[in-house]
User: Which sequence fits this backbone?
């Protein structure tokens, strides 16, 4: 028997929900698991020290915890992150190996997952100088046993090196977050999110702490701390539902996780209870993810600005001919639109802008961000909530700005996420709140309903989205792997969906249809396409769009599933089938092209199967492409 035998089972005992199945006092349970782990690891150290063939000295070697254990956030099934650290002098290589084996093997035998390392102090410093995850892990190290002073001195040295290198390593840290975003997506908008790795997840909380430790920015508190604790509760419940160390909230785990978090309404019939609790769970996770995401973005923004403001604004030789009489130069703002400026790599409000009197200002800010690729400053976002936004009687400028925003392509999801954090889209379209954060009932969907629609629109973008004044665009991007760009003139005029440049009204209708195609996915609705076609004209007329645009967008919303349904369930060689499809788009060949583009963008935004998650190739397969093209060709033949 070793000191850690049965430790895994004891973690689960400490993590058990209450008698009614609800997981309460998650923070207390995490403290209890941490205390138990530290106690058992100290006892294991004593056992290992007694079993060695040599005397383990009191100084020069020790056991340290990093990761969730050092932060006091260990989950019911979390792995243990441990480092055996030595000074490189008191023990030789064989003695260090013997001691390490006496520590690691009992932990493996107990069934615990272990992430372990053996390093000298110099090796710790060298690794953390070049390995970002190792560096952020050592910023919150905790001595377990042995020479605590050695561990604390090493941690202090690494922290000092981290602060000295902050200017150089900040881009690396920010790039790592961006790479993770591309890999794992945004926590608020995924149907099966990874609550650790997704943007807005627990990994971002580690980066916030690392930024604060660098002294480049203060750590947020208040609502942020509450969100972190609740997100840890979600992680704990995923462990309990899965029975293993995982951070992926799969569909199969969601009913149990929702119930453990107290979201299951006991007054509802059992069949309805699970569905309603999952909706509530995903809404809660979206709120938590937005809070963490915004805290990270705000902290990163302040860190970037501190680098600029701490940098001297004049050179040595300017002492003799100072441009600003020895004072720091005033900040510069590059005004790019009424009330909007570029400043230090961000989109901000221009000096003198008055949000309280400008309803179009949020749209101008969003377009500037989407077309430039620069983020909106967090303080600017908060100030935009003061704008008198409305859902009706938009003027021509506001309608044109919305179309420019929707045509921004790959930048649109990030811009929309930032606007959504402060509630802007719901003020433009109150109907948006009915689908915001809602998971899709279809297992094929990767994203929540609202994010799915934004992803679809982003795949309809043409280049940088700026109009050339003739209904075209100043740059054309391929929106789907290897496919010709939306609205481009192909070499083969028979190519579906790409036969001509759409004029301004048709392109606007296509983008608006993408934005609203799933707006009808509401609780209790059986035919969301028909329901969406009922809402779309109301929204668009309220905004002041012309009847031609309203009619085309409404038709596309109503028929957005038609091409897929025909392609997978009807015979393309039957002339009657092609004629029926043509009738569904009013026998308008350009509307048929637009339907193909919308169908392809819709299909490209799916992707929740295990194969798609592994390959990262989502939705629009070559098989889907070929079947859709065959059905499109059948409809085109009927129009000849």
Assistant:
């Amino acid at each position: 028997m070793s000191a850690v035998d049965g430790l895994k089972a004891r973690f689960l005992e400490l993590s058990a929900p209450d008698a009614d199945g609800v997981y309460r006092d998650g923070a207390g349970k995490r403290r209890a698991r941490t205390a138990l782990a530290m106690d058992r690891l100290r006892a294991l150290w004593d056992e290992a020290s007694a079993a060695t063939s040599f005397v383990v000295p009191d100084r020069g070697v020790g056991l340290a915890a990093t990761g969730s254990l050092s932060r006091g956030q260990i989950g019911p099934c979390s792995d243990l992150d441990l480092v055996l650290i030595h000074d490189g002098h008191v023990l030789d290589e064989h003695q260090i190996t013997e001691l390490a084996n006496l520590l690691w093997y009992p932990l493996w035998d107990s069934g615990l997952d272990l992430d372990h390392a053996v390093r000298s102090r110099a090796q710790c410093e060298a690794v953390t100088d070049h390995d970002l995850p190792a560096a952020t892990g050592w910023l919150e190290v905790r001595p377990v046993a042995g020479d605590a002073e050695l561990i604390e001195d090493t941690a202090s040295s690494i922290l000092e090196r981290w602060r000295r290198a902050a200017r150089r390593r900040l881009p690396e840290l920010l790039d790592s977050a961006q790479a993770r975003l591309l890999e794992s997506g945004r926590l608020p908008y995924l149907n099966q999110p990874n609550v650790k790795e997704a943007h807005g997840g627990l990994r971002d909380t580690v980066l916030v702490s690392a930024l604060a430790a660098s002294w480049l920015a203060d750590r947020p508190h208040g609502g942020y701390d509450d969100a972190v604790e609740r997100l840890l509760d979600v992680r704990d419940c995923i462990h309990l539902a899965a029975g293993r160390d995982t951070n992926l909230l799969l569909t199969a785990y969601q009913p149990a996780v929702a119930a453990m978090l107290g979201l299951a309404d006991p007054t509802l019939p059992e069949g309805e209870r699970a569905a309603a609790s999952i909706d509530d769970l995903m809404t809660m996770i979206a709120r938590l993810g937005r809070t963490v995401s915004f805290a990270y973005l705000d902290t990163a923004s302040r860190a970037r600005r501190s680098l600029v403001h701490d940098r001297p604004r004049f050179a040595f030789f300017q002492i003799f001919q100072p441009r600003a009489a020895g004072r720091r130069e005033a900040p510069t703002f590059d005004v790019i639109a009424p009330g909007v400026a570029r400043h230090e790599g961000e989109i901000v409000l221009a000096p003198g802008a008055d949000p309280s009197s400008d309803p179009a200002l949020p749209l101008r800010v969003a377009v500037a961000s989407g077309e430039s690729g620069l983020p909106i400053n967090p303080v600017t976002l908060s100030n935009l909530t003061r704008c008198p936004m409305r859902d009706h009687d938009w003027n021509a400028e506001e309608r044109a700005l919305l179309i420019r925003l929707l045509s921004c392509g790959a930048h649109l999801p990030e811009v929309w996420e930032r606007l959504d954090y402060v509630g802007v889209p719901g003020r433009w379209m109150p109907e948006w709140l009915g689908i915001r954060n809602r998971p899709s009932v279809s297992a094929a969907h990767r994203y929540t309903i609202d994010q799915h629609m934004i992803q679809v629109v982003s795949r309809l973008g043409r280049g940088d989205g700026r109009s050339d004044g003739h209904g075209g665009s100043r740059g054309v991007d391929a929106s789907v792997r290897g496919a010709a760009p939306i609205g481009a003139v192909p070499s083969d005029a028979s190519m579906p969906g790409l036969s001509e440049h759409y004029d301004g009204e048709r392109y606007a209708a296509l983008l608006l249809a993408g934005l609203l195609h799933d707006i009808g996915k509401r609780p209790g609705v059986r035919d969301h396409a028909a329901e969406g076609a009922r809402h779309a004209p109301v929204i668009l007329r309220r905004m002041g769009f012309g009847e031609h645009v309203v009619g085309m967008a409404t038709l596309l919303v109503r028929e957005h599933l038609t091409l897929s349904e025909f392609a997978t369930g009807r015979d393309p060689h039957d002339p009657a089938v092609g004629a029926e499809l043509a009738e569904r788009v009013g026998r308008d060949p350009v509307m048929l092209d637009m339907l193909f583009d919308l169908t392809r963008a819709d299909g490209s935004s799916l992707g929740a199967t295990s194969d798609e998650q592994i390959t990262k190739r989502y939705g629009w397969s070559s098989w889907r492409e070929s079947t859709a093209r065959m059905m499109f060709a059948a409809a085109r033949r009927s129009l000849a």
In short: Residues 270-310 form the longest helix (41 residues). Residues 312-319, 464-500, 608-612 have pLDDT under 50 and may be disordered. The beta strands are 61-66, 80-86, 114-120, 142-146, 334-337, 340-343, 346-349. The first strand starts at residue 61 and ends at 66.
